[in-house]
Design goal:
The chain is an alpha+beta fold and 321 residues long. It has helices spanning 22-26, 42-52, 56-64, 118-126, 128-131, 135-148, 150-168, 174-202, 218-281, 296-318; strands at residues 2-9, 12-16, 31-38, 70-74, 77-88, 91-102, 105-111. The two termini are 70 Å apart.
Amino acid sequence: MLINCAAYQEGKKLTDIPQSEIAAYLKRPDCFVWVALRDSDAAEMSEMKAHFDLHELAVEDVLLGNQRPKLEEYGDSLFAVVQTLEIMNGDLNVGELYIFAGPNYVLSIRSHSEKGFMEVRARCEREPQLLRHGSGYVLYALMDAAVDRYFPVLEKMEAELETLEERIFANDSARANIQALYELKQKLGRVKHTTGPELEMMSKLFGGRVPMVCSNLGDYFRDIYDHLARLNQSIDTARDTISTAITVNLSMITLQENVTTKKLAGYAALIAVPTLIVGIYGMNFEHMPELHWTLGYPFSLALMSGIDIYLFYRFRKSGWL
């Protein structure tokens, strides 16, 4: 689905154009065309391929979808895959942003993502001195916007982690805590699978040899690299914290089981003493001490009660009961 199609020259927007006029504007000097699509189908991509002479392998990647972040050069043009991250109904949604950038065009295709990039176009149009760099600056602005959206996602996960850490010491369900921690670790793993390759990808756009489209924009792409490096560090810290939290949660379970075992052992001892005395006097031997003693019965009860009271006192004092 076509979202927008406009022509720009000398850092300023000329006009919105229909697709039929793309070829005419591509021939203008110092002019580039920016087309934005969403969830494109084969017919639409075939039309874009004809307009911009896109490489068939890159077009195939767009149609197949579910691509890992990457950057590929085809002649004097670039094909970049940047993943988008969103929290939707408590779940992590991973989409893709495909960007074709050539000397006189930018084609951006959003896939499996709810939030668009209209604010990026507005930002570029507010900065004509930067938009003079052409398609390279648009490529930067789109990548920068996608990466900046990772921070709120990570902040929500970190807040969820803090809540789970508090629940560990609140005597909540240990099983539920471990399950929630493991699910959060899986989400962070998916985020890591996004930011890790993008960090490597971004390092190719500044310093040393860079694609012609991105020339003179090294400082801007290095800024995105710094953001990704910080994100990766935060993700690694959060994952280590989750591993520690799971270990602590298991230790809490072990401590709780030890406390329960101690209580069971204490109560078993309280029952064992009367059982022992009753068992002895329950034997059917004719000659037994105190067997015909008038105070034998109350004495045995008093003895059992006294020993149990003493044991209960000692167990309570030692923390078993």
